[in-house]
Each structure stands twice: as structure tokens, then as C-alpha cells.
């Protein structure tokens, strides 16, 4: 009777935990689900960057147009848009790294020899989700 009790307690004690096989199956399932989620998340991050770039370009181009409408000239630098409060700050290009995030500017030459910033574009030559290049937007 004493042996049966010991064996009964062992089986009860071992049934409280997980076997190595059960743990490996759970880890495998979690890894499989994570592998399916990573591409979706990665693509949504890229879509967010594209959307942010479109918004930044729209805001900056509107500020340039408003400046032209108010003064009759384009600003000589983008910083003038901040100084005259057309925008709060010059946004960074979200599709480029912070170290290389520089805008490509188009200028207009005036008769007095000065020039003004007429347009702003991304410097990135990467392709967008629709197949167009960011620097063509």
C-alpha cells in the first residue's frame, strides 16, 4: 500500500508541469505566428513613411504658395517660412535616414539676381509602393 501511494504522488506531481515536447510545440507555434506578422508590420511601417512624406510635401508646398501669395516672391530659404510663421519647423524627409535627410529644392531666379525656393522634393531615389520614385513626387 505504501508503494501505491508513492507512485500515485509521483504521477500527480508530474502532471502539474509541462513536458519538453509541449513546451517545444508552443515555442514553435509562437515563432510561426511571429514570422507571419513581421512582413505585415514591416510593410505598414513603409506605408506610414510614404504617407508622412506626402503630407510633409503638401504642407511645405502650401507654405511656399502662401508665402508667394502674400509677398509676391518665393522665400530665399526654407528657414524664412519658419521665421515668418508659415510653418512651425522644417520637417525631415521620413524616407531617408536622419543623417542624410536633405530636401531637394528648386529655385526661381529673379531679375535683381536673387533667387527663391520654388519647390521642394525628397532626395530619395528609392521606389514607392506604387513604383514611382520618391524624388519625382
UniProtKB/TrEMBL annotation:
GO terms for biological process: protein secretion by the type II secretion system. Keywords: Membrane, Methylation, Transmembrane, Transmembrane helix. GO terms for cellular component: type II protein secretion system complex. Signal peptide: none annotated. PANTHER family: GENERAL SECRETION PATHWAY PROTEIN G, TYPE IV PILUS NON-CORE MINOR PILIN PILE. SUPFAM superfamilies: Pili subunits (SSF54523). It holds the Pfam family N_methyl. InterPro entries: Bac_GSPG_pilin, N_methyl_site, Pilin-like, T2SS_protein-GspG_C. Residues 43-125 form the Type II secretion system protein GspG C-terminal domain. This is Prepilin-type N-terminal cleavage/methylation domain-containing protein. It comes from the Bacteria. The chain crosses the membrane at residues 20-41.
Amino acid at each position: 500500500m505504501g508503494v501505491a501511494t508513492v507512485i500515485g504522488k509521483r504521477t500527480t506531481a508530474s502532471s502539474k508541469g509541462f513536458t519538453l515536447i509541449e513546451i517545444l510545440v508552443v515555442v514553435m507555434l509562437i515563432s510561426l505566428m511571429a514570422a507571419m506578422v513581421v512582413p505585415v508590420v514591416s510593410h505598414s511601417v513603409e506605408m506610414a513613411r510614404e504617407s508622412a512624406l506626402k503630407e510633409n510635401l503638401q504642407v511645405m508646398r502650401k507654405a511656399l504658395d502662401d508665402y508667394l501669395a502674400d509677398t509676391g516672391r518665393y522665400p530665399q530659404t526654407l528657414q524664412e517660412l519658419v521665421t515668418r510663421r508659415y510653418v512651425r519647423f522644417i520637417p525631415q524627409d521620413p524616407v531617408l535616414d536622419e543623417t542624410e535627410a536633405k530636401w531637394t529644392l528648386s529655385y526661381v531666379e529673379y531679375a535683381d539676381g536673387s533667387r527663391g525656393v520654388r519647390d521642394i522634393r525628397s532626395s530619395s531615389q528609392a521606389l514607392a509602393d506604387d513604383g514611382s520614385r520618391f524624388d519625382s513626387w
